[in-house]
Known about the structure:
Blueprint: H1 14-27, H2 32-37, H3 41-55, H4 61-74, H5 80-91, H6 95-102, H7 110-124, H8 131-139, H9 144-167
Helix pairs in contact: 1-3, 3-9, 4-5, 4-6, 4-7, 4-9, 7-8
Amino acid sequence: MTQFPLFTLDNAPSGSQALLAQSLTDYGMVPNLHAVMALSPPVLEAYQQLHRLFMASSFTDAEKTVIWQTANRFHECHYCQPAHTAIAYQMGIEEAVILALKHNAPLPDPKLQVLHDLTLAIIGQRGHVSEAQLTSFYAAGFGAQQLLELLLGVTQKVLSNYTNHVAKTPLDEPFKAFV
């Protein structure tokens, strides 16, 4: 069985050292996901860039959280579900939204529910969404820009969720309280 080491700034491949240093600066720690991805500098760089780009999208923090957690739950990611629960609290997301996402319950905001539903449809239907699903998305106040940015968020989560599945990434201590 392949083992995935958790790299540090001291032992990471040279192409990942600056990327891990950036993680430390951004988060005050090197998340284990990043420590695993450091094995392949292009993968870690791609993930960090996807994250930066998604953070710069037109979605609110609550909407980003809905996309992340919908994908995390769908993919049953043992790492990202608690990590993004912690992040949601840090971002100041309403607890009712956090708990609804965690427990797969209806969201308290109809617009967030529509976003959740389309995120599920995109993932589950591999991008083949119906006109009715798109009409609902647009009627909720989203546009074509947000549809493309939703794909960006899903792409970020596929990379992290699948990495965590194959690497069996251990959960960081700060996230354990959110399992």
